[in-house]
């Protein structure tokens, strides 16, 4: 296989001579360097792995780690609006934490770079507005841009980093984490001072019913663990935490959908896109469950919710799956019940690290047998070389603080795809944080 470093070096040369590199430019460059179509798929896989890790770090407010992952992705896919927006959002989060001017400048730089490539990138407008700057060349959907901007500002106030929704589709219409103007009534832009604070008087809040819609034969069952409408004098927010269980006869590889917030008449007053399950997650076998959650801009008129699963590629499930290999779980934090979690290895692939684009890929079933309920569980996957010494440590959340709680007796899926820098022959699962 051709040298990946040589590929990146040639990308840098082309970026100097050409303001933008299209996907076809990248493909032709790779073919000129001797790459095969299989190699191109590996490069794309590496890019998506960096993006997935960057988004995971961003959602958990690990901004420095997110920046490193998005920069790695950008080195493989220059001028990607999705990656540029991810960098802008990570620098924005870092700036909001410490107010260092270089972070602010970087956030603005990457946001404007994304807009130069795709003027419809609403999340880039949101970053610029959150920085208190003027977004020149405003999109034709200003209400959406303002709503998305407020989502990022609010995220810091209520700990909901999952307001982020990025799209790499520069040809279609805008995708926004804010309400769709054509479906929203009684939603007006607010200033940062209008956002809820601990001292703001809260109006009555209640659980909202949720109705699931999905393609015929998919066989998903929805468990609603939180469906709360919080109304404030100047704004409203809908907070949800859902658990989908596959009761069908197929493996589900990915899920995309939308959430409609409805008034008493059943009319939609807000619409939000939902990236329910990514390709970097473990495939959802029959019997598996997948949790997801977020906080959305809402309206005081909302009385019920519809969850649509619009896209869910599947593949035939096996008649019988081989039993998972038991794996010891180590605890790096005090824990009275050392058998609180049991783990089984579902899939494992360790590439030869002497090859370019070598990966460690793993999927594990983690069962909670502690008698307790957890709201956050974080693992380190410790990779070891031939001599048994640690060569890398991968940080992975089994569930973040806003995900559906992990009840006693439940099983959740942990997965990782990590590029190898040195030979790996074994690994260990370490619990490093629980709440």
From TrEMBL:
TPR repeats lie at residues 47-80. It comes from the Bacteria. Keywords: Membrane, TPR repeat, Transmembrane, Transmembrane helix. Gene3D superfamilies: Tetratricopeptide repeat domain. Residues 169-202 are annotated as: Disordered. The keyword Transmembrane helix applies. Residues 185-200 have a biased composition (Polar residues). The chain crosses the membrane at residues 143-166. Residues 169-184 have a biased composition (Low complexity). This is Tetratricopeptide repeat protein. It comes from Microvenator marinus.
């Amino acid at each position: 296989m051709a040298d990946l470093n040589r590929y990146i070096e040639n990308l840098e040369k082309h970026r100097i001579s050409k303001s933008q590199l299209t996907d076809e430019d990248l493909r032709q460059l790779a073919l000129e360097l001797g790459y095969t179509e299989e190699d191109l798929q590996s490069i794309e896989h590496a890019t998506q792995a960096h993006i997935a890790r960057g988004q995971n770090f961003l959602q958990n407010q690990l901004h420095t780690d997110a920046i490193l992952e998005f920069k790695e992705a950008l080195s493989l896919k220059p001028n990607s609006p999705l990656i540029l927006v991810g960098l802008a959002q990570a620098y924005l989060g870092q700036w909001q934490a410490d107010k260092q001017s270089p972070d602010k400048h970087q956030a603005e730089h990457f946001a404007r770079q994304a807009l130069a490539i795709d003027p419809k990138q609403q999340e880039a407008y949101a970053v610029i507005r959150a920085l208190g700057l003027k977004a020149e060349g405003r999109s034709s959907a200003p209400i959406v841009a303002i709503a998305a901007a407020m989502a990022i500002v609010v995220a810091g106030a209520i700990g909901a980093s999952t307001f982020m929704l990025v799209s790499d589709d520069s040809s279609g219409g805008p995708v926004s984490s804010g309400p769709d103007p054509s479906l929203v009534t009684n939603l007006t832009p607010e200033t940062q001072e209008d956002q809820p604070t601990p001292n703001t008087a809260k109006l009555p809040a209640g659980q909202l019913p949720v109705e699931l819609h999905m393609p015929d034969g998919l066989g998903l069952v929805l468990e609603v663990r939180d469906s709360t409408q919080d109304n404030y004098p100047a704004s409203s927010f809908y907070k949800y935490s859902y658990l989908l269980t596959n009761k069908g006869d197929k493996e589900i590889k990915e899920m995309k959908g939308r959430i409609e917030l409805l008034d008493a008449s059943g009319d939609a007053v807000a619409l939000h896109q939902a990236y329910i399950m990514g390709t970097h997650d473990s495939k959802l076998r029959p019997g598996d469950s997948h949790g997801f959650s977020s906080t959305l801009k809402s309206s005081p008129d909302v009385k019920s919710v519809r969850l649509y699963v619009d896209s869910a590629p599947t593949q035939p499930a096996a008649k019988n799956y081989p039993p998972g290999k038991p794996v010891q779980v180590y605890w790096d934090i005090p824990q009275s019940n050392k058998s609180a979690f049991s783990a089984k290895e579902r899939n494992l692939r360790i590439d030869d690290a002497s090859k370019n684009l070598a990966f460690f890929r793993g999927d594990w079933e983690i069962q909670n047998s502690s008698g307790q309920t957890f709201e956050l569980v974080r693992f380190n996957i410790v990779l070891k070389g031939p001599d048994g010494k640690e060569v890398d440590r991968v940080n992975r959340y089994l569930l973040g603080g806003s995900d559906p709680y992990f009840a006693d007796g439940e099983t959740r899926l942990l997965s990782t795809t990590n590029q190898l820098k040195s030979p790996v022959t074994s690994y260990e699962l370490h619990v490093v944080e629980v709440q």
